[in-house]
Amino acid sequence: MSADGVEWLEDSSFDEFGYCVTFARGLSAVELLRRMGCDVANTARKAPTDANHWIEDVADEFGRRAVADKEGVIRAGEVNGWAFAIEDAGIRGIDQDVLAVVSTDTVAMSTYRNVNALTRFLHAQSGEVVCVFESAQVRHGTDPDRLVPHLTRAGLLLPDGDEPDLGIGERQRLIHRMMHTEFGVTLPREDVENGELLAAMH
Asked: What is the pLDDT of residues 3-29, one digit of tens each?
């Protein structure tokens, strides 16, 4: 898989309807899906369009009862020592209870933007959600100031702690750049946008 950073999300097809991308250091794709509450006993490799219709396709073939408890599909992969999970218009990765589980014995992050331009970033470690924000100046979590040096270097905070006047897209790009430069996470664009990744329902 190639290493393309994360900023490209703002120029992608995922931006139109929203995205949620979750990263976890040192996990396999299967383990990340399991920790996110997916049915990892039934996985398949899916491209984005196929993943979005998977639940409907199973219901058409086997009846609605076969997927009665399923809400969505998450695709996952691994690159640069991190597992990543893609939700097309999903929200599971920004559920703080879910991300806390994902971060057990490791570090996890999620970036989110919906169709209404609502955004959120979460950073968790060892079962605790350390920092959560939409605006970098208004942070919550068990240690919300831990990322201040990262946020300042990224240009999301000014040296005096204030937040610069940024548009939503620009702010998201800086968050994604920070995720890449400060933590080493990346998303292989061709694989994510057009390729088949391991998918599971939740």
From this structure: 589 999 999 988 788 999 999 999 999
Q: What are phi and psi of 123, to 5 degrees?
A: -130, 130
CA distance 198 to 186: 17
Q: Which two tokens stand for residue 148?
A: 């201040």
Residue 31's CB: how many other CB atoms inside 10 A? 17
CB distance 3 to 186 below 8 Å: yes
Return the amino acid letter for 108: A
pLDDT value of position 13: 84
pLDDT at 1: 38
Q: What is the CA radius of gyration of the chain?
A: 17
Give CA–CA dist 65/110, Å, rounded: 32
User: Average pLDDT over the chain, rounded to whole?
Assistant: 95
β-partners of residue 34 are none
Q: Which residue has the tokens 């409907």?
A: 56
Report the distance separating Cα 153 and Cα 155, nearest Å.
6
| Strand ranges, E, within 69-118 | 73-79, 82-88, 107-114
More confident residue, 132 or 89: 132
CB contact set of 95 (below 8 Å; sequence gap of 6+): none
Q: What are phi and psi of 19, to 5 degrees?
A: -150, 155
DSSP 19-39: EEEEEEET--HHHHHHHTT--
Is the pLDDT at 157 greater than 70? The verdict is: yes
